[in-house]
Amino acid sequence: MSEGFKNVNLGNVYPKPTKANIKFISESDKEYMCKYAKESLTLIVALHELLGHGTGKLFTKDADSGELNYDSA
Predict the structure, then answer these.
(1) Whole-model pTM?
(2) Out of 3, 27, 39, 49, which one is annotated catalytic?
(3) Which of 44, 43, 36 lies closest to 17, judged by CA?
């Protein structure tokens, strides 16, 4: 397969953060972390999938010929 991707959301396996189990940040930041935990996890996973895996498929090198599909200069 030369195109395509799968998207994974692990929101159902990560525990919801609570102020009690968040360390080393201010109380106001703890509130933000608790309030936006679901949305931020969704964004992190989406960016990881699209930028981390997706861009790796844009630039390739043919295994047999060594030819690049982009200009390396």
Answers:
(1) 0.54
(2) 49
(3) 36
